[in-house]
Every structure is written in structure tokens, then in C-alpha cells.
Amino acid sequence: MQNAGMEYLNSRLMFGMMPGLTSTRMLCDALENPQKKFKTIHVVGTNGKGSTSYYLSGILKAHGFKTALYTSPHLVSLRERIRVDDVPISDEDLDRYLLQVKDAADKVNAGRDASQQIEPTFFEVLTLVAFLHYANSGVEVAVLEAGMGGRLDSTAVANGSMAVVTSIGLEHTEVLGPTESAILKEKMAVLGEESLAGKTFVVGGLSQELLLEARQFASDRGADFVVPDIRKDVTLPNLGQHYVENASLSLAVAKQFIGSSYDDALAIRTLSTRSWAGRMQTLTDAFGKVRYILDGAHNSHAVKRLVETLSRYYPQQKFHCVFGALKDKDVGEMLKLMGPHVSHWHITKTPYPRFRELDDLRNLLAGLGLNVATEGELSRKYLDQVLAEAGEAPVLITGSLYMIGESVQALKNDYEGLAFFRGLDQTTNEHR
User: Fold this and answer.
1) Rounded CA gap, 311 and 290, in Å?
2) Directed axis angle between helix 264-271 and helix 241-258, to 10°?
3) How many CB atoms lie within 10 A of CB 422?
4) Sign of the C-alpha dihedral computed for residues 17, 18, 20 and 25 taken in this order
5) pLDDT of 336-353, one tens digit each?
6) Which one of 58, 123, 324, 343 is least enclosed by Cβ atoms within 10 Å?
7) Quick count: other Cβ atoms within 10 Å of Cβ 330?
8) In angstroms, how far apart are the furthest CA atoms of the chain?
9) CATH code that applies to domain 281-421
10) Helix axes 91-109, 122-136, angle to 10 degrees
């Protein structure tokens, strides 16, 4: 039986995504502004936000700070999104804070006519829950991954003094603007739009043209601007140069935030053990053999990074690939990019209604001259079947973070790399 807090949260799904800070600010005031009780570092960008946030929170924790991490979406459980010192929020605290947010909304709406009442969205409610949890846990610094954009994202009300920009690409253009330049400005405005004296941007992954625009944005508002070098001495569990780039950003941010007590050797050691789940993550068996490679690449930009990484770490190798994707993704381009690296296509889907049907995937592959080896609903049984067919080679699972979440749920009890997820009950996932 679903508890009252989760019932309230799920009732918010009908409101979709509504960019803007009015509701969040009113509710923060009603909750006595929990977001003011800790320092905040914002992480914005098109790709790379989650890993950068995760790496950064680990470095801060290793330096003795009580550190919060807020990310989205989750892979298995909502509780993953809200962590303190790498521990996910408990079911009891999640329910309690959800009801506090509901009570605050009822209080704000009391006496207002229907046209003036606020209806917080799913993501806004979760952001407020995170603020309450962090404030009541005595968190010193929170690393907040923006959900969408920056200026109008509910995380912006925390009004931190530092922001990380990981990358810029065309996304949510109906809200963020039609060009990369417009999107960049929306994301950088997470720190505000007027004077930003005393605040700092740490920026990576931009073209030279966008980098000049970003620097000008910061300069016009009096903010500091840092473009760190990509480190050569970083070793990560996650495969791929893009994760080295994200880790380099996290190191630069930590150094700026911590100051003279920053220990680079400690930070590097911390990163060597920090695996961001489901993103170029290798799962090894008890004998140290890689059995699966999980990667949540779900758009063409991310697939380009995936195939670059496969070329580097597995040159000349072709994979048995378990592939599924959502209906709104450019799947044809994704398949075309991956084609040279796949020997056998195993197409799949989950019960989530936004997934492409198997007939659709089969037709897209056929149009590219590619054949389907097997197909079926994603399950542990299906993954075992593909693994057996692959023999000694690792199986690649990719195409959607939703599918990676289902795979993690199926495999978590048998691979130590997924131990974090044991004890977490599966909950539905929405990008809201």
C-alpha cells in the first residue's frame, strides 16, 4: 500500500514541467527557507551533470565536509536522488518531508481563489524535500544538479556562490531557447541575472565561441571565471575521456571551494574508487572478468561518446548489444553510429509506455541493413540468455537510462559494482 507522501508526490505528475521559481520560493518561505542553512554548488549543462556532481560530492566528503548530493533521474529508486554522505534518504524521511511540503502548499493556498493557487510540480516537490532533508541533517554543502536549464530551475532558489557548466547542446529548445548561445545563458543564470560579484563559474566542454560568450557573461556581472585543464593523472572506474573531463571539472571546483586545505592527492584517490552507476560502468564477476558494460547513452551526442570509448578500450571488438530506446529519441542516428561496433543486436523494451515498440526498432535496423539476433522484454532471464550467447565477451547494454535502471535492478544482487542499490525498492521514474 502506497503511503500518503508518495500519493501526494505522484499527484504532481499531472502538472508536468513548469519552469519558474514562484511556487518554489513561496513554499521555501512557508517552510522557513531550509535552502539557506547550507552552502550550495550548482551543476548545470546538457550532458555530464550527474557524473560531475557525483565526483564532486565524493571529493568534498573525503575532505571532511558533510555533503549532500541531489541528482535526477534515478535508476532504481527515488531515494537515490537525495543523498547525504552517499547515503540515500530513508523511506520514512522521504514520506515525512513530502507531507511537510504538502502542508506548506495547503497553507500557501489557504484563502486564495482557484486562479491564484499554486500547484508544485513533481520535480519542485522533490527539490523541496531535498532542501528539508539537507537542512535537518546538518549538511555543510550541497551539490545540486539542475533538472532543466538553470535560471528557472527550482534548484536555483538555493542561490549558491558557485556553478559548474559541464557542456552545452540543443535541448528543451521550447523553454531554454533555440540556439546553444541562448541555452548557455539560461544555464549560467542559475546564479542570478544581475550582479554576481563574489560568485564563481567553473566551465568545461564548450566550443571556443561559446567559451567566449560564457566568459563575457561572467565578466559583465563581476563573477570569477575558471576554465580548468583536463587532468592527465585521473583514473576512474567509469570508462571514457568524457568522464576524465567531468572529473577534472570536479577537482577544479573542489579546489576553489575548499581553499588552502584542499588535498589534491586525496581527491585523486577518491576519484579512483568512485563509479557513477550506469554510465560506461563495467560489471565484473567474481573472477574479475567484465560481463556487462552499462551505459545510459540516450541521444546522438552521448552515443558519439560511447563509440569513442569503445574504440579506445575495445579496439576491433564488436559486441552483443542489448538495445532499447524511448519514442522521442533520434534512434536511427544512434543505431547508425553504433553499427560498426555491434555484431549482434538484441532489442528490448520495458513496460514503461514511452518505450519504442520492438517492431519499430526492428524496422529501423532493417532500414540500415542490420539484423536482429533476439528480442524480448527486459528481464534477468533475457539478460542471462544474451550473456550466454556472447560467450567470453562482455555484453553492452545501452539506449536509455530507463532501461539501464531496469538492468541494474535485475543484476544488483550479483555484482558488487551495484551494491549501492541493494535494499532500495524500485519506483517509477519520470524526468520531472
Assistant:
1) 17
2) 140
3) 9
4) negative
5) 999 999 999 999 999 888
6) 343
7) 14
8) 68
9) 3.90.190.20
10) 120
In the sheet that 395-398 helps form, which strands lie side by side, from edge to edge?
281-284, 290-295, 395-398, 319-323, 342-349, 372-377
196-224 b/e with 16+ CB inside 10 Å = b? Answer: beebbbbbbbbeeebbebbbebbeebebb
The per-residue pLDDT for 429 is 63
Alpha helices in 259-299 (DSSP H): 264-271
Answer for the pair 23, 118: CB distance below 8 angstroms, yes or no: yes
pLDDT above 50 (res 432): no
105-155: per-residue pLDDT in tens?
999 999 888 888 999 999 999 999 999 999 999 999 999 999 988 999 999
Say what the alpha-carbon torsion angle 214, 307, 411, 6 is, to the nearest 10 degrees: 30
The domains of the chain are located at: 4-271, 281-421
In this structure, what C-alpha cell is assigned to residue 104? 506548506
> Is residue 132 within 8 Å of 31, Cβ to Cβ?
yes
Distance CA 292, CA 282 (A): 6
Q: What nine digits make up the cell of 235?
A: 583514473
- SS3 per-residue string spanning 24-50: HHHHHHHCCCHHHHCEEEEEECCCCHH
Rg (CA), the chain: 22
Q: How many residues does the chain have?
A: 432
CB-based contact 57:271 (threshold 8 Å): no
Q: What is the pLDDT of residues 168-196, one digit of tens each?
A: 877 776 678 889 999 999 999 999 988 99
> Does residue 88 contact residue 134 with C-beta atoms inside 8 Å?
no
d(CA 79, CA 92): 11
Give percent of the chain above pLDDT 70: 98
Residue 243: φ, ψ to 5°: -75, -30
Average pLDDT over residues 15-33: 91
Locate the DSSP E strands across 138-199: 141-145, 162-165
3-class secondary structure, 320: strand
Which helix (H) or strand (E) segment holds residue 329: the answer is: none
Report the topology of domain 4-271. Answer: UDP-N-acetylmuramoyl-L-alanine:D-glutamate ligase (3.40.1190)
pLDDT at 1: 44
Q: How far is Cα 77 from Cα 427, in angstroms, rounded to an integer?
A: 5
Average pLDDT across the chain, whole number:
94
